[in-house]
């Protein structure tokens, strides 16, 4: 009897423990309702464990929230960071070697995306870029994910970054249960942006130089040129005290423009964008900015771009106002660093005390799980 009673007591205790664990599991699977950056009202599981990102470079943003390991909940991604920002990929790979085995699903807006594999990973949330909303709607992928019980959330660090960066991070902070981290970076972001805003608003229009932004300068040496309209880096130029040349040429996000138009207008300042595209395109002549870049190689590439046929005659080249910046700033929450570099180039006296290099280091020290290295912007040396 004593043995039987003891056994029965242990069984009841075990059952109670199991019930408690099950109840705790159910309690933690909390669903919240959010409005994403596309204005869609979505029910999503809070603090999800399995997330697929529609673009690998979303890690720039997620690293600000899951600071110990931005890949801890990522079960699949697109390999764009591997291909077009390999310096950043290797930087993260060094700290988080497990990402070498992270499956890539390609673009979620095309037939190449393996929806069955996404579902098989018990995915709870798929993150997509606002700029691809129409493509996602036309492909029907949102409805297919919804039918599988997977929430789709749109964020934006590219289409309208100055307006949508903080709201996107706050949205992700709610979903990932990282509101404190989102708020801390949001405060820092606002502080860095206002450092520029407060001074630029006093600059009269006639003192704002015309700036041509050459998008992906030299990516394909045979082709020129693409530029930004009044969005993205074009918008940052305006906010930094310049007048973006492309805003008068296109109402869109970006556009192809002719060399003849550039040469005819002879803009005061030229800013190209570059990144380590050598692995994706070995023939590229772009400035290979990134975590593995070095200053001497940056100067060599800048000099070669400035020496293209007809370019040495431009005022920006002759007056030492020929610059370049890390292309990936256009798609990350870190664009305030680029804005500080722009401000110093456009108004060196007014922004003499602003140090974008110190800001970039502080960003890494305070918010990111990787350390700062490499080169992310540069100006053509006067003796080049």
Automatic annotation (TrEMBL):
<dbReference type="InterPro" id="IPR002491">
    <property type="entry name" value="ABC_transptr_periplasmic_BD"/>
</dbReference>
<protein>
    <submittedName>
        <fullName>ABC transporter substrate-binding protein</fullName>
    </submittedName>
</protein>
<dbReference type="Pfam" id="PF01497">
    <property type="entry name" value="Peripla_BP_2"/>
</dbReference>
<dbReference type="InterPro" id="IPR050902">
    <property type="entry name" value="ABC_Transporter_SBP"/>
</dbReference>
<feature type="signal peptide">
    <location>
        <begin position="1"/>
        <end position="29"/>
    </location>
</feature>
<feature type="domain" description="Fe/B12 periplasmic-binding">
    <location>
        <begin position="50"/>
        <end position="354"/>
    </location>
</feature>
<keyword id="KW-0732">Signal</keyword>
